[in-house]
Amino acid sequence: MTLARHGATSRGGVNRQALSAEDIEARRTMIGWARGIGCSAFGDALGNFFIRLEGSRPELAPVLTGSHLDSQPTGGKFDGVYGVLAGFEVLQAIRDSGLVPVRSVEVVSWMNEEGSRFAPGMMGSAGFAGARTLTEILSVRDAGQQSVAEALAELARALPDLPSRPLRTPVHSYIEAHIEQAPVLEARRLPIGIVTGIQGKRTFRATVTGEESHAGTTPHRRRRDALLSATGMVQALEKLCFDPQDITRFTVGMFRVEPNAPSVIPAKVVFSIDIRHESSQRLIELGDAVLPLCSAHAGPCDVRVEELSTAMSLEFPESIRSDIEKAAARLGLGHMRLLSAAGHDARYLNDHCETGMIFIPCLKGVSHHESESATAADLAAGARVLAEVVWARANDLP
Ligand SMILES: [Zn+2]
């Protein structure tokens, strides 16, 4: 609730976009808390933010946990923040116990998970794990034409005494706690979700080019109506992705018609295609069918299809999933395994070290909304499971 003041909206939500003044203030608050329990804070070249509790063997790769402090423009109090604060709670619990772990334990807030200010999101984790280059990320600009590099320079001016660490430092394991952002756990009345993996996604942009002409005088055989071709493509894609089992997710969320005038035959249509599926094999098949299908329905128009992003479905290692499961069972907390339908920073960390995720229920499964909520009992349950898993891993316990 204290962090939610940084960027608080009048309707109870949070607007704390990546590297904004509000994001910087949230970091400042956390630095104060970190120093209060004798932990150090670090940054890196991408504006990722770390808090470290030193282990008895500081040369060993740390156990890392956390998520992100940035939010959507009309976001809630829990998405991302929960994982950071659950991680910080683990550090506090370790301090309270008087014990010292063998490996250091670190809490991270990844820069720009949401992607609302600088697109696409999961920037800090992708850059940290080497999936995107620093140079490419630094040149991305927000709607006001400010670059990531400029925003990072502001961050450095605001927090000048924060040491910086290299990217790609070794990590022993990464465990991210997050609200589920879907209604499954709430419906089953279970506090803990053991995330099996993350659903894959392929996104495309289709550009259909026809010819602008008079709506009244142009005969049928001379028409090159980009809108009619585009709607034919969307319907064919919908048919392609129709799935009686309701696993395939197909969305055309953006559709732009030019010149968009009532008496002019549309000359150009640009639309987005977003396809998601838990099986990478199926995702490859569906995505590969997009261009041939669009071409087959182009009629007298031309179509160009660009693939914007490809993220295959991934599975977290069984070792970490069973650790989370055993911890929940030991604590007597109801749990189930489930797939994440949304993307998370853990996607990129999974390529860097052994990675897993813990979900807790959120009210009606709602997120990216100011009404986002979760119960204290569920928040605490997730933090307790996280603490068990982090402590065991930091001490190389079975
Ligand atoms: Zn999130």
* C-alpha geometry: globular
**Mean pLDDT, nearest integer?**
97
Q: Determine the CATH topology of the largest domain.
A: Aminopeptidase
The major sheet is characterized as: 10 strands, mixed
Query: By helix and strand content, what is the structural category?
Result: alpha/beta
List the bound ligands: zinc ion
Query: What percent of residues adopt helix (DSSP H or I)?
Result: 25-40%
Rg for CA atoms: 23 Å
- Cα-to-Cα separation, first versus last residue: 36 Å
- Which CATH class of the largest domain? Alpha Beta
CATH superfamily of the largest domain: Zn peptidases
> Count of DSSP helices?
11
Number of strands: 15
The domain tally reads 2
Second-tier CATH architecture of the largest domain? 3-Layer(aba) Sandwich
Strand % is 15-25%
* Uncertain residue ranges: none
The helix/strand order is HEEEHEHHHEEHEEHEEEHEEHEHEH
Concise description?
The chain has 398 residues and is of the alpha/beta class. It has eleven helices and 15 strands. Bound molecules: zinc ion (ZN).
Structure description:
33% of the residues lie in helices and 22% in strands. The protein has eleven helices and 15 strands. Strands 1, 2, 3, 4, 5, 6, 7, 13, 14 and 15 form a ten-stranded mixed β-sheet that branches.
Task: Give the tags.
398 residues; Alpha-Beta Plaits; globular; 15 strands; Aminopeptidase; 11 helices; ten-stranded mixed sheet; binds zinc ion; alpha/beta; 33% helix
What topology does this entry show?
Layout: H1 21-36, E1 40-44, E2 49-53, E3 63-67, H2 81-97, E4 105-109, H3 123-129, H4 134-138, H5 148-158, E5 164-165, E6 173-179, H6 184-188, E7 192-198, E8 200-209, H7 226-241, E9 249-251, E10 255-258, E11 268-277, H8 280-296, E12 302-311, E13 314-315, H9 318-330, E14 335-340, H10 346-349, E15 354-360, H11 376-394
Parallel strand pairs: 1-5, 3-4, 3-6, 6-15, 7-14
Antiparallel strand pairs: 1-2, 2-4, 7-13, 7-15, 8-11, 8-12, 9-11, 10-11
The structure holds zinc ion.
